Amino acid sequence: MISVIILTYNEERHLARALKSVAAIAREVFVVDSFSSDRTVEIARAHGAQVYQHKFVNQAKQFQWALENLPIAGNWVMRLDADEVIETDLAHGISTRLPSLSSDITGITLKRKHIFLGRWIRHGGRYPLILLRIWRSGCARVEDRWMDEHIVLTRGRSLTLNGGFADHNLLSITEFIGKHNTYATREAVDILNERYALFGGDSALISPNVSLQIASKRFLKIYVYNKLPFWLSATLYFLYRYIVRLGFLDGTEGLIYHFTQGYWYRMLVGAKVFELERSLRGLSGRDEIISALEALTGLDLQERKQAPKGRVA
CB burial class (10 A; 0-12, 13-18, 19+) of residue 274? Predict the structure, then answer.
């Protein structure tokens, strides 16, 4: 009934757990791997997943490639990250509700919770995060963004299922910081794209085809947050999360999480935008700016006319 797609790169710590969590509801599981150097591919095969390998550019392009090229047979498709888990109650809800849905329901949103250092982060506006993660085959696409991309419906409407859906990453704080450093570079590129129209924008979330929560957050981020000086917006955002939205109730783990993800990370994104804009001064022309950004960030920013072919691993 459901075809599950998981993108991976060196996910040997998480992948088996994710695969086991969807075993009861998945007709087939596809793992699209970015040429991992650990046991990711071996683990995927051992759990019956079909493994494809494809060069990684960013999450959005990788997942859209999967939608357009994998031999998906299921009537429904699920996006699952390697560090996410579908809990038993949600799996039961999916298996019982999907067969009885009317044809105008083409998407399912889930309520994701975040587990950090073993603690469920319940406050600071972090729960629930309502995300579109299941859709009828052929009825959705991925936003074309470098960071914070979402699945959006191309037709029909969605409903929300209750049940346990957890983002439970097992990385150390050092690894968490390193991962978010790369995220900050990608998000800085998205902000510069919005300011200078380098690649064209994808405003799919500013529409009724996603959850109101996600659409309103994107609207505020683009039209309010990114217009403020980065040091001010990052500070106000942290105070809002930690005090107004009661993030302090999440204890020591919450303090670490809200500070690093809600303040340090936001400051880092703003600082990278500031640094990149200084380096781009005096440049003229879209191609010259994009080439300079590629050199500064190490990202492949050139628009691709055709996605490179992947291969079965």
Answer: middle
Contacts of 268 (CB under 8 A, 6+ apart): 180, 181, 184
Q: Measured between alpha carbons, how far is 310 from 156 in angstroms, rounded to an integer?
A: 31
Going by C-alpha positions, the residue among 80, 92, 91, 97 that lies closest to residue 133 is: 80
Residue 239, token pair as written in the block: 């105070």
Q: Would you say residue 82 has pLDDT above 90?
A: yes
Does pTM surpass 0.90?
Answer: yes
| 35 contact partners, CB below 8 Å, separation of at least 6 | 9, 53, 55, 56
| Structural domains of the chain, ranges and CATH numbers in brackets | 2-170+307-312 (3.90.550.10), 173-297 (no CATH)
CA nearest to 59, candidates 130, 136, 148: 148
Q: Residues near 201 by Cβ (< 8 Å), separated by ≥ 6?
A: 193, 194
